[in-house]
Amino acid sequence: MSFRLLSSLSAKLRSVVYRAATVALIDMKKAQVVFVLGGPGSGKGTQCVRIVENYGYTHLSAGDLLRAERSREGSEFGQLIDNHIKDGKIVPFEITIKLLKKAMEETRRLDEKKIHFLIDGFPRNEENLQGWTTIMDGEADVKFVLFFDCSNEVCINRCVERGKSSGRTDDNRASLEKRIQTYLQSTRPVISLYEKQGKVRTVDASCAVDKVFANVKTILDKEI
Ligand code: ADP
Ligand code: C5P
Ligand code: MG
Q1: How many helices (H) and strands (E) does the chain have?
Q2: In this predicted structure, what is the pLDDT of residue 21?
C-alpha cells in the first residue's frame, strides 16, 4: 500500500493497517515446524534426510541433540541423559527444549531465511508438548505432525539390525522393550491429541524406503 493511499485513510483505519502489517511481519519471523513422530526404528531419521535433500527444511533430531549433549565435555546432564536413553525413558523436557531452541536459534542466526524445521522425535510425551507450548509458542508455529506408522515388530527388528553398526546403547532387545512401552504409553497419546486437531499426516512406514518417501512427498507437496 502506497504512502499517499495510507495517509488518505482515517486514523483508525490506518492503525488497523499498521497492526495487521506488524502481525504479518512477526509471523513471517516465526519458525515453521513439522513434528516427526513414530515408533523407534519407524524410519524418521531416514525420511528426514530425504526431505532435507528435496525440500528446504532443517532437520533437528531431539535424540541426536541429546546424544551430543551426553558426550559434551563438562555437560551437567551427561549421566542423566545416558541413564534415560538406556532405559528408554523420556529426558526431562527442560533439557530437550533448551537444546532444540538453541539449535533453532543457531540455524537462524547463520541464515535468517531458514525458518522451516523438521523436529524429529519430539514431542515424545505430554510434558514435552506442554513445555514446547509454554516456551516456544511465540517463536514457532507447528504446521502439522508427520507420523510414521508401523508395527512394533517391524520397529524392533529394524533397531536390532541398526544396532549391529550404530553403536547406540539402546538398540538392543532389552532397551527396545522399554522404548516400545514408552512409545505406546507416552507418545501415542500426543499423536492422538494432534489427531483431534486434524494435524496428523500419517504415512505407512512399513514399506520400502523409496515407497515411504513417495508417500511423504505427496503429503509435503499438498502442504507447501
Ligand atoms: P528412527 O529415526 O525412526 O529411529 P531410522 O531412520 O534410524 O529410524 O531407521 C531405523 C533403521 O531402519 C535404520 O537402520 C534404517 O536404515 C532402517 N530403515 C529405515 N526405513 C526403512 C524402511 N522403510 N525399510 C527398511 N528399513 C528401513
Ligand atoms: O529419537 P531417538 O530414537 O533418537 O531417541 C532416543 C532416545 O532419546 C529416546 O528413547 C529417549 O530416551 C531420548 N529422547 C527423549 N526425549 C525426546 C527424544 C528422545 O528423552 N524428545
Ligand atoms: Mg532417529
Answers
A1: 11, 5
A2: 56
Q: For the whole model, what pTM was predicted?
A: 0.91
Residue 193 CA to residue 161 CA, distance in Å, equals 32
CA distance 202 to 192: 12
Q: Tell me what the pLDDT averaged over the chain comes to.
A: 93
162 in contact with ligand 1, CB cutoff 6 A: yes
- 117 with 104: CB under 8 angstroms? yes
Strand order in the sheet with 116-120: 58-61, 116-120, 31-38, 140-149, 200-204
Query: Cβ distance 152 to 187 under 8 Å?
Result: no
Phi then psi for 123, rounded to 5 degrees? -80, 130
Q: Where are the domains of the chain?
A: 30-223
CA distance to 53, 94, 139, 140, per residue, from 135 (Å): 30, 9, 8, 10
Cis peptide bond N-terminal to 92, omega within 30:
no
Q: Domain 30-223: which topology?
A: Rossmann fold (3.40.50)
Rounded distance from Cα 35 to ligand 1 centre (Å): 17
**Which residue numbers in the chain have pLDDT < 70?**
1-8, 16-28
Ligand 1, atom 4, residue with closest C-alpha: 41
How close are the terminal C-alpha atoms of the chain, in Å?
A: 27
The alpha-carbon radius of gyration of the chain (Å, integer) is 20
